[in-house]
Amino acid sequence: MLPKSKNACFLIADISGYTSYLAGVELEHAQDIIADLMDTVVRSLRPPFKLAKFEGDAAFLYAPGNRFDGSLLQDAIESAYFSFRKRLRNIAQATSCDCKACHGMQQLDLKFVVHHGEFIRQRMAGRDELAGRDVILVHRLLKNGVKERCGDRAYVLFSDAGIRSTDVDPVMQGLIAHLEAIEIVGQVSCWVRDLEHAWSEEKDRARHLVTRKQAAHIIEFHIGAARPQVWEYFTHPDQRPRWRAADKVREDVSGGRRGIGTINHCMHGPHAIIEEILDWRPFDYLTLTTLLPMPDAPKVLMSYVFAENDSGTHIEIRVAKPKPKDMSFLQHVAADFEKHITDEVAVLRGMLECEALGTRQELSESTPRP
């Protein structure tokens, strides 16, 4: 039988400055650094993306489907870039090695190309490969004119097809319109996001995190699933009703993208719990206020903190110490809240750990055997 075509969002994460970096440096240290950085990037992108293969200084990933949540997609890309920059900084601070490879790694940077289209899966040399016109196109888009237009900065280049597969309004979100001429294909409309600017904003933005010392109550859980997936189920308005006691979550998004300023109305019959997001750091933590539909209820401040470990994701819900006048209210509702969230997380844990088991079985079945 001929392979059946499927749709997917394709993403290539490519380390820029790689060729000049390798010139005259110690190859063993250089390759260790590149492998470490690529592992950091891929971990931040899975899920929603799956790794198709490593391609030297690049990783080719894909997410099957026709439509994608634009906020989650951009959060995944920015989180991968921020993790890359933080990892570069941490390696430099931790090493005492004065070799050229360790000294020169700060010249490395990262760029992304995103496209949506069709692919077929074919077996080549004992392994599955993605093939098709759109697979070729996303690779061709790596050789582009963004540098000449925007300077030597980190960026993500979305094809127009990639943007149209999401709910992103590129103009509202400040993306730059761009055209690429691809041989045989012709003109390809694209959109560019400046990741260097996003990194600068991330570093300068004030943090609003409830620390453990500032918390009146801390509720902790562990789920055996990847952190981006857990984050999605805690934050996406379509996923939350699947495991939390809400009929529907109505989302009022500021600036066309989920994040700081977003207002959620968690509907429970005719009543709504109103949340306002104050800080948004995918996939590390989010801070919000919650207003319960009760007379004289104060806004309750809390942070949801997500930490990845070898067995999955550790979650802490840190409820901030209230003002003295609100202490009795918090003491009144705290026990019920802990019971409800514990029961709900048990449902989520079952869902995600079953999904994770299915993914591991799928990977095992697709791995070539000798």
CATH superfamily of the largest domain: Nucleotide cyclase, GGDEF domain
Number of helices: 10
The portion of residues assigned to helices is: 25-40%
Q: Please indicate the count of domains.
A: 2
- H/E series: EHHEEHHEEHHEHEEHEHEEEEEEH
Question: How large is the radius of gyration?
Answer: 22 Å
Largest sheet: 8 strands, mixed
Round the mean pLDDT to the nearest integer and report it. 87
User: How many DSSP-defined strands?
Assistant: 15
- Low-pLDDT sequence parts: 362-370
Explain the overall architecture.
There is one protein chain. By secondary structure, the protein is of the alpha+beta class. It has 2 domains: 198 residues, Nucleotide cyclase, GGDEF domain (Alpha-Beta Plaits, 2-Layer Sandwich); 159 residues, START domain (Alpha-D-Glucose-1,6-Bisphosphate, Chain A, domain 4, 2-Layer Sandwich). The protein is 35% helix and 33% strand. The strands form 2 sheets. Strands 1, 2, 3, 4, 5, 6, 7 and 8 form an 8-stranded mixed sheet that branches. Strands 9-15-14-13-12-11-10 form a 7-stranded antiparallel sheet. Strand 2 and strand 3 form a beta hairpin. Helix 2 packs antiparallel against helix 3 and helix 3 crosses helix 8. The radius of gyration is 22 Å and the shape is globular.
